Amino acid sequence: MYKKIPIFIILVVLIFPVIVFGEPKQRKRSREFHKEQQEKRMEYLYQQRQENRAFRENLQGMTKEEKKKSLQQQRQEQYQEKRGFNRKMHDENMAFLKGRLQNNKRLTEAQKEELINSFEQQYQENVDFRNQQHQENVAFFEKIANDPDMTQEEKKAAFKAHINQQREENKEHRTIQGQERNDTLKTMKEEVRSKE
Question: In the chain, what's the furthest Cα-to-Cα distance?
Fold first, then answer.
């Protein structure tokens, strides 16, 4: 019984302020913003899947050559739409970041600018990476689609292997960028703490 009382007191002391005062406002706003961004991304991906299904249904009755041209055009249109969507999401993220930095009194203007430049640089690296992958995809799909020696099953297997390889490349790219971002933030936090 006596062991339960200190645990109860500790829980009350730790949980009571959170229940009464809530989370710090900045963190709560950040979580809400990022949740909203995630919902927009999921909605966008769902919309693209729906468009793809409808598009595949419209391919019925076309010749192979018509299907091929139609698929190429549709992929290019979707790629351009996705680039625009990614740019819009980035702009919203940067506006949110700049708003938070504007209210931050602990960072110097140089540190704020360094942070903004770091995020912009990573965004541009992502754009370049996606463009490179898109070009590789187009070339690979053209090569496989035009190979008369491959069966339909072999083509599907080759497409699947290519996509899996790119997933691994994407994962590695995101991991590297995450580490770079964490290193930048850690260095900045250490600078701020050393000045306090």
Answer: 81
